Each structure stands twice: as structure tokens, then as C-alpha cells.
Automatic annotation (TrEMBL):
GO terms for molecular function: mRNA binding. Residues 1-23, 268-330 are annotated as: Disordered. This is LALA0S04e06238g1_1. It comes from the Eukaryota. It comes from Lachancea lanzarotensis.
């Protein structure tokens, strides 16, 4: 009894076999060549009178001859020519578009593998990361070659060539299929007219002339031969005293800078600590005054004398933000935006005075304050121009490193520039931002002047 076939349950339509898409290894030169040979019949047609010339050495040709790609091309289409002066080239004749694409892909990819450490084990395997880049020559008698100038699908036809009567064509693609497509599209637009033997003879003549021209150019340069262009003895006699004089001048300049830096007075630690001690002295004086409590029946004279202590100037307070020790209340450090701006301008002017007192060649790191409202954005917008004009490193500091500026601000005489303003306290840290400027003295001074201009502008 025969075996019954299973009934078809796919509908009432006719059965049809689903065609699977062609798949091949796109990193293999041989697989890509065979795929294009099946799919593109026009690319497998022999081009009549076709001749392409490729500069190649003997080692490269030997590697190609022993590869699997060499066995795929037709017989007798490549000829390796070694000239007497050591120049060699490969003549590819009567080829198909796929033959030329296979040869160019192998040679160009093998050269690129010297720079990219990928795919060196198999010469016919070309990963996509390896560029297929190089150039070859065709005769100028080819039709339509001048109509395809410029970059086209990774192929560029040079407008000028070192070899007379020949045109240089460059290929620059990633991936074997893309390079095959580019070569096939190019050859579909070309028609070779010159006979292969005649083109080969003219190419050898042009290549020999170019090699001879380069040799003559190099060997005829006068200063390659010793003592032709100049006499070293004469040059040393003339330049020797000048060099020694320059060394002496440079040494004296360094000594003068060092002496100047040593002569400039530097604020000692005791001097910077002295302003911090005076408020403590005042507070101790107040504590020892008899009858300061309102419950002890003290007289009004002592209280009035305690309240009449003059306020300290801006910049001399090292402990608190309020300049008057008697008025440290909840609103003691409240300042208007105009007062905050005036105080910041005073810090810039005081920093300018401090920089002027130092050597212009000394490397300094100065600090200024700017109002947080409006002016910080203005400084951020002009930081790049400020660095470019002054060659200084200007940075708006954060809260985690703002403590670095404390010593600098304690050494400034800000009160000198706040006499005309009604500033009674130092602005609260939340209302200002600190800007640091690093560079040599003269550049630092220029940066401070530019920042002063920004703060003086009305925002």
C-alpha cells in the first residue's frame, strides 16, 4: 500500500518555492568575485583593447601570484614588467571589469594591511575596516574619461598626471562589494582605443622619463654636496661672537629679574595674621568694661563709649563679613546689587595694584570677585576671548576650591578703592563668584584690566 501524502494546508493557491536571497562572505575577494560574476553578466564581458597599468614591486606581485585570487582571473591578462632602473609595473590587458576589480582590490588591500593590523593571515580576506585605496593609469585616448572627472562613487580621475599621455585614476573605498561596484561603474563609461602594445610602449617611455627627471632634480641640488652652498668655517666665525653675546645678555637679564623679585617685599605670615588679632582685642576690651550689662545698673556713658568705636575699613576684617564689630546682626552683611558690584570692582583694582608691584615676568595667580547676578554669565561668555587675548588661564571657581583665594584677598588693600562708596561689609559668598587668573605678570595685568571693563559695563 502506497504512502499517502500529507494534504497541503497553505490555501487554495498554487505551490511555489520561496527563493532564498543570495548570501556570500563580503570580506572574501574570491566569494565577492564569484557573486558578481553570477549577478552581473555585463561585468564579465572582455573589454576590447583594454589596458591598465599599475605600479607594483616584485614582492607584491609574487604575493598576488601565489594567492587564491590569482587563480580566479583569466589566463594571460597580467604581465609583470621589471625595467632596468629598478622600476616595475603590472600591465593588465584584455580584461573584464571584475578581473580588474579583483586585482586592484587585492593589491590595494594588501598595502593597507601594513598599517591596519587586521586580516593579515589570509591575503584574500579583506575586512571592512581595511581601506581599498590606490591609483592606476590608463591611456588618455580613452573615450568619455574626461567627462567623469571628480569624485564619483569613490573613484577620482586626476586633472593632472606626472606621466604624459596617461591619466591617473584613484580608488578610495571601504568594503569589497563597494569597490567592485565603483570599478564596474567606471569601466562601463570607458572605451579603449589605443592598441595594448602601443600603450605599453608609451607607458614605459613616460615612466622612464619621469624616473630620470626625479633623479636629475635630486642630484642637481647644490647644497647636497658639502661646502658648495656655504663655508662652515666662515659661518662659525661670523655667528660665534653673536651667539656668545646673546648668551651673556640672556644671563644678565635672568640676574636682573631675580634681583628684582628678591627686592620686592613679600607679606609675611605674621603680617597677614595681625588683622585677625585686632577684633579679638576689641572684643576682650568690651568684656572687661564694667557695667556693660543692662541688668547691672551700668551708666550710659560706658555704653555710649562702647558704641562709638569707629567702623573698620573694607578689606581689613579677617574674621567676619561685617566690617563694624558692634553691628554684627542678622542683616549686617546685606548689600544692594550696586554695592556688591562696587566691592567687586574694588577687588579688581586692588589686584591690579598688587600685580603692578611685582615683576612683569613673574608667574602669578590672582583672584577677583564678580557679582553672581548678571555678571557671571557675562564673564562666562567672554572667557574664551579673554584667554586668547591675554594668554592667561581664567577660570570661574567652584565652592570646593574657592578657599584657595582667601590668602590673596587678605593681602589686598580693598579699602583704598571703597572710600567713595557706602560699603559697610563684605558681600556674602552666595552673592559673588571668584575668578582666578593665572599667567605671567604683564599678561595677568592685561587680563585684570579686561575684567574691569566687563564689570564697569552696564548689564
Amino acid at each position: 500500500m502506497g504512502v499517502k501524502k500529507r494534504p497541503f494546508s497553505g490555501g487554495n493557491g498554487p505551490r511555489s518555492r520561496v527563493k532564498r536571497p543570495d548570501s556570500y562572505d563580503q570580506s572574501s575577494l574570491v566569494a565577492t568575485y564569484r557573486f558578481f560574476n553570477r549577478k552581473k553578466a555585463e561585468a564579465s564581458t572582455v573589454m576590447r583593447r583594454s589596458a591598465v597599468f599599475l605600479l607594483i614591486n616584485k614582492d607584491e606581485y609574487s604575493k598576488f601570484e601565489n594567492s587564491r585570487a590569482f587563480a580566479e582571473i583569466r589566463v594571460n591578462i597580467v604581465e609583470f614588467v621589471q625595467l632596468e632602473d629598478g622600476v616595475s609595473y603590472l600591465c593588465i590587458r584584455n580584461f573584464t571589469a571584475l578581473d580588474l576589480a579583483l586585482i586592484l582590490g587585492f593589491v590595494f588591500a594588501d598595502r593597507a594591511k601594513h598599517w591596519v593590523s587586521i586580516g593579515k593571515d589570509d591575503s584574500s580576506h579583506v575586512p571592512r575596516q581595511v581601506p581599498i585605496r590606490g591609483s592606476f593609469y590608463i591611456h588618455k585616448s580613452c573615450k568619455d574619461v574626461f567627462e567623469t572627472r571628480g569624485p564619483t562613487n569613490g573613484v577620482t580621475i586626476a586633472q593632472f598626471s606626472e606621466l604624459s599621455m596617461f591619466t591617473e585614476i584613484s580608488v578610495d573605498r571601504y568594503g569589497i562589494p563597494a569597490s567592485f561596484d565603483a570599478v564596474c561603474v567606471l569601466l562601463s563609461k570607458l572605451k579603449f582605443q589605443k592598441s595594448v602594445d602601443r600603450a605599453k610602449q608609451e607607458f614605459q617611455t613616460s615612466l622612464r622619463d619621469l624616473t630620470l627627471k626625479r633623479t636629475i632634480t635630486v642630484t642637481s641640488i647644490p647644497f647636497l654636496d658639502r661646502d658648495i652652498l656655504m663655508d662652515p668655517t666662515t659661518v662659525s666665525k661670523v655667528n660665534g661672537p653673536i651667539v656668545e653675546e646673546s648668551k651673556k645678555a640672556l644671563g644678565s637679564f635672568v640676574e636682573s629679574v631675580l634681583k628684582y623679585n628678591e627686592a620686592v617685599p613679600v607679606a609675611t605670615k605674621e603680617a597677614t595674621d595681625s588683622p585677625k588679632a585686632s577684633p579679638q582685642t576689641i572684643r576682650s576690651t568690651r568684656k572687661t568694661t564694667p557695667g556693660t550689662s543692662r541688668y547691672s545698673g551700668s551708666n550710659n556713658t560706658d555704653q555710649a563709649s562702647a558704641r562709638n568705636i569707629p567702623a573698620r575699613a573694607v578689606g581689613t576684617n579677617g574674621g567676619g563679613r561685617t566690617l563694624d564689630p558692634q553691628s554684627r546682626g542678622s542683616n549686617a552683611n546685606y548689600l544692594t546689587q550696586e554695592q556688591i558690584k562696587d566691592y567687586c570692582v574694588a577687588t579688581v583694582k586692588a589686584s591690579i595694584d598688587a600685580v603692578k608691584s611685582k615683576s612683569p615676568y613673574q608667574i602669578l595667580k590672582t583672584y577677583i570677585k564678580c557679582p553672581r547676578q548678571h555678571y557671571v554669565d557675562l564673564i562666562y561668555d567672554n572667557l574664551h576671548d579673554l584667554r586668547a587675548k591675554t594668554n592667561c588661564n581664567a577660570v570661574v571657581m567652584n565652592l570646593n576650591n574657592v578657599h584657595e583665594s582667601t590668602a590673596w584677598f587678605n593681602s589686598l588693600d580693598v579699602s583704598k578703592h571703597t572710600k567713595d562708596s557706602k560699603i559697610v561689609s563684605v558681600p556674602h559668598p552666595s552673592t559673588v563668584r571668584v575668578v582666578s587668573i593665572g599667567g605671567i605678570g604683564e599678561h595677568n595685568l592685561e587680563a585684570l584690566k579686561l575684567l574691569l571693563q566687563l564689570l564697569d559695563s552696564n548689564v
